[in-house]
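Hi all, posting the design record for the shared folder.

TITLE: backbone redesign
STEP: 1 of 1
STRUCTURE INPUT:
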């Protein structure tokens, strides 16, 4: 008999099926044994009666997380006692045969059948290979998968070509000190801080490119918003006039991705009490304007033209109140705090760049890039870097490239804010931070 997936059972009432999956929980009620079984498609209740002696005897030994195979009759729940919480709640399986495929070798350190794990973050992550089996935890990554898939769909629909770029590079993309240095045979190399240089090369070849891939930052932060490896959703586009073209494209992408998550992940969103508002025109304001609002409305003064985590949270609070938007673009960041490839604005103190904030957190940085070779060399020197270290990157501009710009999106931060997770690490299958290299 071929295996049937659990979500197929509601249309097979009256038929005998074979199911394989994990035991979520076993419950004994009088002489009856109930087992909730799950597979990749869903969860279903099974009942084992004493008359099925071999199955009953096997069921007596079953514990959570046993992997089993069963054969049984699909029946409508007696008395119309439908479980409204799951799609298969109107049916159950009357088990005729039951066998164990695999079982845990140790006592489970965590009861993952609970609706709420209520674990501290270290316990959650130390037992990650087990806690990821919890239904509510799995919901995070169903939303994550939908987000990444939707991002790829809208990018391709908009004429962007997907590329994959090297993660071992010969120069630190952003400069500074936030890079991982590695031994590369007889040379020194770095883990890529972003795919920036290769995205720009892609513009000179394909005009519009995007990538979903790993990004590494050697930032010694102990915060709820930082990790040392994350998945970036990047894009670069040619023949633009300013960063406004980039923001308009990103706005379209964000609207599509949020709508797809809202439509296709309703059960997962409900598990977290999460709601996604339709994304329309995202407000834009210069960073200096945002700092004025922080000063006047919240009495928060910044010593420099920059914004910190509290400032991002407060300006999003103000935008939500005054524009009913969960998003805001902050534009025209100072040249001194932006990478050397950032295009200066009309006032050279500032750049034609932006950050996109979502519910109090920066999720994207982007803008227009310098595309003139000589201007770029001068900017590298101005940032106290050596143009010789960027020789291959500069070749892109020697051979000519159109005006262009793009963005990098932090995928995990988006999911964190959609679901209101306490830490970005909860939105990563196996996170890497200052202290964590395992599991």
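Okay, here is what came back for every position:
SEQUENCE:
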């Amino acid at each position: 008999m071929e295996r049937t997936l659990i979500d197929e059972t509601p249309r097979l009432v009256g038929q005998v099926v074979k199911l394989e999956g994990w035991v979520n929980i076993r419950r004994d009620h009088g002489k009856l044994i109930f087992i909730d079984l799950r597979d990749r498609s869903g969860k279903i209740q099974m009942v084992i009666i004493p008359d099925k002696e071999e199955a009953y005897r096997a069921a007596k030994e079953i514990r959570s997380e046993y992997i089993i195979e069963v054969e049984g009759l699909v029946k409508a729940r007696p008395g119309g006692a439908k479980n409204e919480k799951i799609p298969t709640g109107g049916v159950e399986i009357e088990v005729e045969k039951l066998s164990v495929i695999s079982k845990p070798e140790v006592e489970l350190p965590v009861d993952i059948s609970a609706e709420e794990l209520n674990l501290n973050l270290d316990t959650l992550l130390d037992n990650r290979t087990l806690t990821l089996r919890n239904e509510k935890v799995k919901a995070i990554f169903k939303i994550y998968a939908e987000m990444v898939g939707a991002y790829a769909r809208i990018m391709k629909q908009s004429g962007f070509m997907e590329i994959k770029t090297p993660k071992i590079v010969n120069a630190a993309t952003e400069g500074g000190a936030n890079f991982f240095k590695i031994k590369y045979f007889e040379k020194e190399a770095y883990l890529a801080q972003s795919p920036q240089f290769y995205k720009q090369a892609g513009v000179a070849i394909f005009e519009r490119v995007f990538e979903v891939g790993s990004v590494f930052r050697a930032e010694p932060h102990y915060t709820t918003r930082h990790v040392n490896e994350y998945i970036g959703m990047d894009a670069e586009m040619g023949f633009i006039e300013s960063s406004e073209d980039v923001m308009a494209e990103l706005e379209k992408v964000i609207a599509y991705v949020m709508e797809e998550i809202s439509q296709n992940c309703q059960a997962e969103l409900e598990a977290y009490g999460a709601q996604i508002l339709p994304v329309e025109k995202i407000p834009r304001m210069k960073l200096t304007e945002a700092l004025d609002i922080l000063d006047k409305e919240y009495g928060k003064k910044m010593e420099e033209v920059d914004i910190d985590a509290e400032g991002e949270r407060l300006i999003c609070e103000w935008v939500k109140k005054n524009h009913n938007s969960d998003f805001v673009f902050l534009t025209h960041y100072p040249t001194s705090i932006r990478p050397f490839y950032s295009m200066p604005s009309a006032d050279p103190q500032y750049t034609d760049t932006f950050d996109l904030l979502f519910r109090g957190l920066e999720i994207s940085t982007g803008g227009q890039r310098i595309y003139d070779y000589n201007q770029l060399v001068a900017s590298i020197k101005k940032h106290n870097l050596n143009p010789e270290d960027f020789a291959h990157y500069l070749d892109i501009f020697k051979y000519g490239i159109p005006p262009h710009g793009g963005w990098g999106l932090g995928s995990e931060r988006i999911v964190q804010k959609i679901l209101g997770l306490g830490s970005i690490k909860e939105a990563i299958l196996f996170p890497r931070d200052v202290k964590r290299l395992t599991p």
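COMMENT: Residues 213 and 231 are 5 Å apart (CA to CA).
Let me know if anyone wants the other runs.
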